[in-house]
Fold this protein.
Amino acid sequence: MYVTPVAEDQVCIALITSRNGLRFDAALPSFPQLAAKLEQATILGSTLGATTASRRLRNVQTGSAALIGEAAGSVDAITGEGLSIAFQQAVALANAMRAGDLAAYDEAHAKVTCMPRRMAALMLLMDNRRWLRARAFRALAADPSFFGQMLAMHTGTLAPVEFGIGPSLSFGWRLLTA
């Protein structure tokens, strides 16, 4: 589950699961801290569900037409980055249009979706391997700041060069020994 603020006093809570038929109410007790915070909450909307998948297109532009957002391919919803990707694609498309070179949008689109695709693949890999997920959680718990740095790199606020190889090697060692 992840929680996204949508207003000063409202949040949207998403449940992503590979278990068919698992409902929000049945899953909530597995998240006791979140359940405690929601005890007095008022539900404003209804529960919605959807299937998610990753889809990659060879080209996202041709001639005078270009695609952005879900129409330009998708990254599994597990990353929670759908709108962020669409906004970044819109900026890249505007830059390509301004330069009069829609072909440049294909390259920019690939850069925008590269990290989210890698993150989705990693998260889905951990979803299918309980032992790896358990080790990753233990390794992340040993150094909470590392997760913050990974998140900053993933969202583009920290360049991989700034991140450096040291933290990655240290995390790799903790992952192996966890």
Summary: The CA atoms of residues 69 and 86 lie 4 Å apart. The first helix runs from residue 24 to 27. The beta strands are 2-7, 10-14, 61-62, 65-66.
